[in-house]
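Here's my example:
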Amino acid sequence: MYGLALLEPDDLHQAGTRTSPAPHGRGQNAVIESFWSRMQVELLDRRRWRTRLELANAIFEYLGIFHNRQQRHSAIGWLTPVEFEKRLPSTVA
């Protein structure tokens, strides 16, 4: 995602993407800023990590197990992602 910021809007359009109509600034990234803030408090600030591998494993576990499966999200009506997906109509590919 960060690499896209280096491209011009015309380059992004040619690649089939759309840019945000919102002005650049803090409000544009509110969701990701909220996520990083929460992860900082719930995981990163709670202990010191001895190695990068230990930290990487903790982040993977936080994302894959807690955040994506158990954490309630305001953007989906304070449901967990698993609860939200169960409410969606099933589709056959």
Summary: The radius of gyration is 17 Å. The chain has two domains: 1-42, 50-93. The mean pLDDT is 76. The longest helix spans residues 52-67.
